[in-house]
Amino acid sequence: MITKITKLKNFGIFQDFSWKTNLQGFSKFNLIYGWNRTGKTTLSRVFASCEKKCAYDEDQFRQYPENGEFEIKTKDNTTVKNNDIATNILPIKVFNQDFIDDNISFDTANSTRPIVYVSEEDIESKKRLEKLKTDKVNLEEKYQDAMKDYLAKKEVKSVFLKGLGITIANIVFDKTYNKTDAENKINEIGIDNFADKALTDDDRKKYEEISKSPAGKELPVFSSFELKFLFNDEQILGFEGIFSIVKSLLDKKVVSETLERLKDDQTLNAWVKQGFDLHKSKDAYTKCLFCQNSINTGFFDILSKHFSKDYIELQETISFLVTEINKIQLTKMFIQNNELYPDLQENYNSNVNDFNKIIEKVNIWKQLVIELLEKKSENPFDSDLSEMISKPDDFIYALNSIIEDLNLIITSHNEKIKNHSQEVNTAREKLELHSIAQALEAQDYKKFEEDLSQAAGEEIQTKEKVNENTKNITTLEQKTSNIGRAVQKINIHLKEFFGREEIKLELDGDKKGYIIKREGHPAKNLSEGEKTAIAFSYFIVKVEEKEFKVKEAIIFIDDPISSFDSNFIYHTFSLIKNHFNEVGQLFISTHNFQFFNLVKDWFIKKNRNIEENNKERKLLGKEEKLTPCEFYMIKCDLNEGKRKAKIIELDNTLKKNKSEYTFLFGLLKDFDAKTEEATFEEIYNIANIGRRFFDIYADFKVPTNSCEQKEKIDILVKEINKLKLDEDKISKATCDKLFWLINGFSHNSDPTSAIEHKDKSESKEAIRILLNIVKESDPKHYEILEKNLI
């Protein structure tokens, strides 16, 4: 016997259900109430999977969730799980829509599929059938072992790939990378082709930098360096041109009548030249501007001959040339350029370093030239200075060669900018292959694959044997099936269902299938009720097969009267009560309130009988028997936009009340009696409950189809107010408040009304008004309703 469903995960609307400790376990008889689409059929599929010993099969379980998980606890504390049900030994039969779809064909124009009903005839075939079924258990155990081994090896591989996926995702800075990507790459390259994919530490770091680098910006190229200027109307090109001029100036001899004391003293010569020029500029030839003493008249003539025209021209020429040379400003470059791609920086830095070394040589040579020229200017009579200067290297060519190399690097960088995404992808792929290569070297992944492939082969072979065994059982069952006897039994039930032999099943020409007929002709346009009647009759017959022991079995019946009228409801209830009263364990789920009440009363009576029996047993000193019947309901909650179903204890109002009307009245009374403030959710619900209750009450108090709801309220209130002469017992404003709650609020036809009636006190007052109208218009009826709640 099943006591609990301890787990339902990813199982349709049961997203994450676990059995609560305060919820009573399943008993021998169990009633489950729930509206349509709350999960009743989904729950029945848990039992059906145990019956078919198959957790998921696309052919058999069209709506069974492939990743669904469940755990069932039995009375002897064993656990049945979704991944080991192939070895399930619980005898289970399930009636639900899947049973109808799998077993009954309603193609009334043609012979339908065979009805399988195992009879006692054909002893030899029956023995072979028993042997096949015994083999089935062993085969399914082997299949389970093979499947577990396969899943275990698959998990080992999955853990390896998952870890590898996380590692690569972090290395290539791509959080979307996962184990599937890693596996696809291994399959693409081939396990044996990763030996040369590992990177050196330097390359790995370089590609990591590229992988995480943002798209940079394009850099300008360097201009070629050139040196030219005009000197004495002659264009001087490069440092070699400068060298030639400097050499000639340093070699030049000045023609003049030199003063020996000035010639040998450069400092004095420079000082006298400065004074000479100053006096000339001020036209002061008779008095010294420094000491104010008189100057001999011939002294300036002597100085003029010393500082001759050649002398002055040489100095002016040197001054001009020094100025031009100083204009040649060559500065060093920054060695580090962080805007470049990392893989280009080393070559770039090397070239910049060479460039800067040449700049140092240029500046040294330039400084030497300027120093020599300045010495020549200070002492034009010195003709030995030219020996101190040497011909320079071809600096211009050397510098431009390096600039050309640097521009190639910058061009490469700019091309990378244009193709940045491709550069990043290339770097990441190299890092990906490097990581996989390292992982494959550290772990024997090839062995993982070989073990998994072998386990998969074992799993497939054992499954094929199970399928072959199942096919042989089906074939032999059909051979040993007494379809004629089954059709007879089904027709008996159909006659009881419909009260006459209107719908019958007849054997086809080959007596292997059946045809559904209505009054002797192939039935057309079968109603849903007729289809369900045929299907449920077949289910009863299947349960009665010789090999199936009902008293030890677990039966689950899901909504057997979904489309029946009241006559079918009572007959279906009678069939269930008579055929399954002695069942090992019974589950009935339904949304039909009338059928629910029939089963509920049956179970309650069983409980009362056992309680009386327990009292007698207690007096006799005997052990008490457990209460055989339990009541549940399936409730759906809305969580993050998704419905989640759970099994809970049946609401006490549903257990106490036999009609929807009294049930709704109980909810209204409970709401009115609440002392704490109602939530907005309760207010929304109570508005709909109030409307439904008033509709039922008003229909039998004001039995006319010509009145709207508001008019029926007015008629009832008018009758109540006739008893009061001085003032109305219920005012018009009070009626309007009630109407706007149960009509405007529940239907939300006017958005402003929904806003106006969110006041909690008004909602509670409106319900009190509704109850008061019922009480004042029919006191006796109201009294009976209240007594029914006790």
Task: Please provide a written account of the structure.
- With 790 residues, this protein is of the alpha/beta class.
- The chain is built from 26 helices and 15 strands.
- The chain has a six-stranded mixed beta sheet, with helices on both faces. Strands 2-1-4-5 form a four-stranded antiparallel beta sheet, with helices on one face. It has a three-stranded antiparallel beta sheet with strand order 9-10-11.
- Helix 16 runs parallel beside helix 17.
Describe the biggest sheet?
6 strands, mixed
Mean pLDDT: 79
The count of strands amounts to 15
**Shape assignment:** elongated
Strand order of the largest sheet: 6-12-13-3-14-15
Radius of gyration based on Cα positions: 53 Å
Helix content: 55-70%
Q: Indicate the low-confidence ranges by residue numbers.
A: 255-259, 746-758
Distance between the termini: 35 Å
Number of helices: 26
| Percent range for β-strand residues | 5-15%
Look at the helices and sheets and give the structural class: alpha/beta
Keywords:
single chain, 790 residues, alpha/beta, 6-stranded mixed beta sheet, 4-stranded antiparallel beta sheet, 26 helices, 15 strands, 11% strand, elongated
